[in-house]
Amino acid sequence: MFRYAGWLLVSALCACAADVTFYKDVLPILQNHCQECHRPGEVGPMPLLTYKDTRPWATAIREAVRLRKMPPWFADRSVGHFRNDRSLSQQDIDILSQWSDNKGPEGKVKDAPPPREWVEGWNIGKPDIVVQLPKAYDIPAKGTVEYTYFILASGFTKDTWVQAGEFRPGNRSVLHHATVFFRDPDSRWLRKYPAGEYFVPAEQIARANAPSSGATTNAGASLLEERFLGYVPGRQAMVLPPGQARLIPAGSDIVVQFHYTTNGRPATDRSSFGLVIAKEAPTRRFYTTAVANDKFIIPAGAADHVVQASMTLRGDAELTGFYPHMHLRGKWMEYRAFYPGGRSELLLRIPRYDFNWQLVYELSESKRLPRGTRIEVTGAFDNSPNNPYNPDAKATVRWGDQSWEEMLAGFIQITVDPATDVFELVGAPKKSTQTLE
Predict the structure, then answer these.
(1) DSSP readout, 29-82?
(2) Which end of the chain has fewer CB atoms at under 10 Å, N or C?
């Protein structure tokens, strides 16, 4: 009897595996977890829209999902819940594996879900404003390209609230990352440089040539220059929930920072970005700031060098997300909150940091951070010869812009009442504006 029951179970499992088809089972998973990147013009190396697109990659897909290399997602599953979690459930992994093991059957077209609708060139829908850099930038075939900047007059004559934004690289093969800042009218940052031209700030070059003189990044940007929008491969576009929006103060300028890397061939880039304007005044202002330490020294050969940073909030806020940032020696990172009264909480753990996939982790539900909450970020660096990505295990490493240097920056995303002075909240009142130009 038990032998018969076992035979029935095996038969049922085989039948289940045989029933898995592309249109009925595989395509819905691809639509929900993969097609955002795997379609023409996006970062994925091949499209996964149709059966013809997908079938040649069946074995590679099986291996990537079994090892959880794809879709990229690095948060510890036992800590926190995230609304943009694109990782696969075990059931999804089993379906894709069964489909591959069974030679990738196509199934019936009538079983397919409706195709996802994409606005060509955008993941945020049709932008209200599209800003394309007015000139292309030439990247040499070899050598180091220092961080390069471009200033545009924003043209915003009144305070403007933005609900979604997306940066579109003109040439992914050479653009390592880009950041869009909105320079507050009260800021003196980069004022001596003209608008409408690419430039490398002299202050940045001076510090690059004398790293022991002190850390710098973003050419000396202060907290008055909000990191409004960014691009790194694999990062999802910024789409805020209803009621939340980012503020562009009237009179702000746009400053775009580019980090180009050479690839052996001369290249050009002319990037753009799009914004969706909020249809009504928000109930919460969305703001990003960094919990960072720029004073560390990583000894040569150190395999697990730990660095900490912290920030104490001077007002109430709601925590909505995280963007952990390190470079090639980054190993792991954690965020903790220490609340008034003594309670602490682990917020995010990245047990295996991957510089190639710098993701944003958006909480499913925001967390209240009362005045006096301290956010602590801890990260470890592997500067040993056992790190295959280590540029130089014999080097003593400090903070720096380039990938062979390091950073510990635990960005946090918060929302506040729209009337809140966000600079005062994070300890940078406007009266102490940045003096470095």
Answers:
(1) HHHHHTTTTSSTTSSSSS--SSHHHHGGGHHHHHHHHHTT-SS---S-TTS--B
(2) N
Tokens of 316: 């109430």
Ramachandran area for residue 422 (φ above 0: left; ψ -120 to 50: alpha; else beta): alpha
Rg (CA), the chain: 24
Distance CA 307, CA 52 (A): 48
Per-residue pLDDT of the chain (437 residues; tens, 9 = 90+): 445 444 444 444 444 555 899 999 999 999 999 988 898 877 788 999 999 999 999 999 999 999 988 998 999 989 999 998 888 999 999 999 999 999 999 999 999 999 888 777 788 989 999 999 999 999 999 998 889 999 998 788 999 999 999 999 999 889 988 999 988 888 888 999 999 999 998 866 665 555 544 445 677 776 667 788 988 876 778 999 999 999 999 999 999 999 998 989 999 999 999 999 999 999 999 999 989 998 999 999 999 999 999 999 999 999 999 999 999 999 999 999 999 999 999 999 999 999 888 899 999 999 999 999 999 999 999 999 999 999 999 999 999 888 899 999 999 999 999 999 888 898 765 543 333 32
CA–CA distance, 409 with 326 (Å, rounded to integer): 7
What are the chain's domains? 2-111 (no CATH), 119-281 (2.60.120), 284-417 (2.60.120.230)
Provide φ and ψ at 387, rounded to 5°: -85, 110
Three-state SS at 209: helix
The predicted model scores a pTM of 0.82
Q: Are 290 and 377 in contact (CB under 8 A)?
A: no
